[in-house]
Write a structure and sequence with these properties.
mainly beta, single chain, about 120 residues
């Protein structure tokens, strides 16, 4: 018997589209942050894209989202941050500074959150 290629014969009856929701939050460091410390930025310490004070930080969609943190315009490693969604005094970003690190006064910290909203359409 000769070899054959076996393949699935499927006719797709659904399509999935994703529409990302991108939000950015801006913070300026008020005092120099020394190494081996944790710096907490509460929701109300951020400004949004319109320059308004943020009232709450959005929930991350499970398995359909991510966030990036930029310090002085440079994308940072993920393990240095902890994100908590929520309202003022609940939502926050924790920045953990490793040894031999420092964030000088006036440095911008930008957090970008991307949530994908998948939609399934039947054909």
């Amino acid at each position: 018997m000769s070899l054959k290629i076996i393949k699935l014969a499927l006719i797709p009856n659904q399509t999935v589209s994703t529409s990302p929701t991108v939000t950015r939050f801006f913070h300026e460091v008020k005092e120099t942050i020394e190494a081996v410390s944790t710096y907490r930025i509460d929701a109300a310490d951020f400004l949004d894209d319109r320059g308004e004070v943020v009232q709450n930080l959005p929930t991350l969609n499970m398995n359909n989202s991510y966030f990036n943190v930029y310090i002085n315009g440079v994308l940072q490693m993920d393990d240095n941050f902890a994100y908590t969604a929520g309202e003022v005094e609940v939502g926050s970003l924790l920045v953990s500074l490793p040894e031999d690190s420092e964030i000088p006064i006036g440095t911008p910290i930008i957090m970008e959150i991307v949530n994908f909203n998948p939609e399934i359409q039947n054909l």
